[in-house]
């Protein structure tokens, strides 16, 4: 039976309206309205020392990650709502000390490009492009240099030294997200032969700092440095100059 032309037009209008509503809802979820300078300052003052200023050392709770491989202080959408008021999609920054022989294992950020700015030490880094591109890009990053991890691409960071490595991680999103590949593979398929067994075979003894597979310690590096298999003693940052310990709130100004 043929559908009357008026009914067909009405259906198309309804479908179009439904699509527009769905698109508007999606945009509202992804974007934070840009605030005026005055509103930004008022928002920021709720949790800042002074307008447009924050201290990494003030990070606490979930915003502070401290284990045998890393000390990381995070300022992101959760830790500072002001950052999400910047032109969409905002920004986030982490101050990180990768402890002797520490690794940030392969991971990606689905919603942001990341900029690693090295302040102290030497970073070994690697990145893999999507299928068809270069998949074994490795390099050394020194103080004053920047390593760029493009949005969505797999990358890793390693401290090959017996002393700490310090860098700032900057994201062009207040909510960059992170997917730790080894932890995800280990959990996939209930940890079956494609998951945990394969990971253990290729990384035996290295994933010591986090069951989520985000951090690890390089056992060969620890042996070369004369450090125990559990990492450097104390807070792991004993070799860090005092001016950098101040940045992390580990020493007085």
TrEMBL record:
Keywords from the UniProt entry: Apoplast, Manganese, Metal-binding, Secreted, Signal
Cellular component terms per the entry's GO annotation: apoplast
Binding site for Mn(2+): 107, 109, 114, 155
Subcellular location: Secreted, Extracellular space, Apoplast
SMART domains listed in its UniProt record: Cupin_1
Domain of life of the source: Eukaryota
Location (main, coarse): secreted
Domain Cupin type-1: 43-187
Pfam families, A to Z: Cupin_1
UniProt-listed InterPro entries: Cupin_1, Germin, RmlC-like_jellyroll, RmlC_Cupin_sf
Gene Ontology molecular function, alphabetical: manganese ion binding
Binding sites annotated in the UniProt record for oxalate: 109, 114
UniProt entry tagged with the keyword Glycoprotein: no
Secretion signal, residue range per the UniProt entry: 1-24
Family the entry assigns: Belongs to the germin family.
Protein name (Swiss-Prot/TrEMBL): Germin-like protein
Source organism (scientific name): [Myrmecia] bisecta
